[in-house]
Amino acid sequence: xxxxxxRRSSDLEExxxxxxxxxxxxxxGAINFKQKIFNNIAAIKxxxxxxxxxLEYYQNSLKVNAKIGDKNIESSLNNNIGICYMEKKxxxxxxxxxxxxxxxxxxxxxxxxxxxCYNNIGKNNALMGNFALAKENLxxxxxxxxxxxxxxxxxxxxxxxTQLYKEIGDYKNAFQSxxxxxxxxxxxxxxxxxKKIAQLxxxxxxxxxxxxxxxxxKRRETEEQKRRLIYLVIAITLVLVSVILGLLVYLQxxxxxxxxxxxDKLELEHLNISLEKQKxxxxxxxxxxxxxxxxxxxxxxxxxxxGIAEKLIQSKNDFKSENRKVIxxxxxxxxxxxxxxxxxxxxxxxxxxxxxxxxKLNEKFPNLSTNEKKLCxxxxxxxxxKDISTITYQxxxxxxxxxxxxxxxxxxxGEDTNLINFLTKL
Length: 426
Prior knowledge:
The protein is built from 15 helices and no strands. By secondary structure, it is mainly alpha-helical. The protein is elongated and about 130 Å long.
């Protein structure tokens, strides 16, 4: 009598927890749903051979059913509990619950259920070795099933009897029960076959009608689409003719005006290009002057910071010994931060004026170091060696050597080519 739902046990257990959290878990609807979940989880546990878990859920279901008072459910639960104990080989407990289920089913005149109980009690007695009682129980089940005409249940009883007769060595009756079982099985097979054939014929008929309907529907849809397409083509044709006529009139009227406008446009473009060139030249000159001013400002700023650092160095020994370390840190910080800020400010202004200089330099001479690129930028602004020395904190001699190395990396041969002119033409 087990039902094995397709849902997972974990899903059902989660649903059970949700019911228990409800505001009114003792409502009639919640109780009925809770009992169904208990029964379904128990059925899954039996399928998984977890009989102790199944018994736990069946006992919970019995407690819930005590509030409902449904005799049919009570008899089914006792029958299922008896089956669980039978699977656990606890045959005395199985017998108790199966007989309890039998008594309830007799009281409610559930003769199909009575036959099932006799069948299960017979199997339990056979497992206990009580073969005479087992035979008596199975024959009672078979008698009821013959009266009711339930072939499925009758087949189960006959198969159980066949197994029992084999156990006690009564092969004659075992053979007879087996033959009877085969007759019932064939009958069930014929009934099932007839049902399947009828279902297939009905399905074929439905599919055929559906196919005819779909073909007719498709034909009508096709005709409707054709009509719509014809109307659409006519409408588009009329619109296109109107548009073409309007365009011809418009083109004819504007043909002379367009020639004049084109001539005026060319003159304006030429004038605009000239003005644009002049504007760009003026902007470049202004930015160059501004950049030069910024560089000179940076030079003065650098000289000022250097002067402060030098004065601190000269005066360091005049300070107290506990302050000398702080003075030295200030000197170091002034020099290090000054380098970074000077270059950062210079590079920002330089990039605004000569935006593609670095791009062209990297493209033609990718092996230049960062310091060499800085030197190129300074030279591009036509700064003197002394000015570059002041900005970079390097000696004049070092800058002269760096310029010589830079000429080699830029492949400038001989003294005929000026380094600054070379960089300006990039």
